[in-house]
Structure formats: C-alpha cells, structure tokens
Give the backbone structure.
Amino acid sequence: MPSPSSDAACGICQKLALSKLAPVFENELWHVRPIDAPSGVPGWMMMVARRHVAGPAHFDEREVASFGPTWCHLQRVLLEVTGALRIYTAAMGESSPHFHGHLVPRFAEMPKEAKGWAVFDLERAAKAGEVMSDEAEVTRLTEAFRAALVKSPPLAP
C-alpha cells in the first residue's frame, strides 16, 4: 500500500504517518480508523482521504467515484456491527484542511442522552473526562468492524 501524502503542517497527515493504531480498512484512496481514545461513543470511526485534500470539492475523479459507495458501505456495515439505531455522519474540515469524515453510532442509550449535533460534542467530553466509554466495548466493536470489512470490503476504487 503506498504511503499517504504527508504535509508536515497537517495534523491528519502526521497522525496517519505516525499512528501505531491499525486501520480497520485501507485502500489506495481511504483510510478508516477508530477515533483516538478516549472515545465518547464505542464504534466511532473516521474515514480519511489518504491524499492531502481539503474536501469533496477538491476530490479527483477516482475519489469522487469511490466516495459515495465507500461511505454508504461503511455506514451499512457499522450499523450491522454495532446494532445502533443509526449512524450519524459529519465532515466539517474546520480543525484540519485534510478530508476526514466521522461515522458515529447513535444507540438507544447515549452518554448525556446526546442526540443530533450533541453527539459530536461527546468526543470533547470524553477527552475532558466528562464521559467514559467502556474500553472493552470500543475494542470489541473496532475488531468486529475490521472483521466485517475484511469479509465484505467496499468496492475497489
């Protein structure tokens, strides 16, 4: 697998280059990984462009053709693996000009009873120690998602 692009000023590029955390899925275009611990919600994943690209408006033809089918496949598989009610998704690109989209399971019971946009604040709350996810459940869902994607990967770009 070719190395992802590396922009020394980009936190996402550096995270991908230095992370010892194995991706749950990776191909020439996308890197899928759990969010860094601590996680506000077990099963919280990120889909990251391997190329340093600001967002969908700047995708090349291959990224455009692959993005929708890959994004939908990841959501379907994550939904099956987690048993969540739905998968919330967001890609704002405000914290880093390197495309990364969040896939967050929304369970019947959520920390702080979060729903809608409040779910995305759970990452900050976890890092501040205000909410705690069961690390065994985080690991179980990560491994189950990885295994499901090995068995049924997104279509090749």
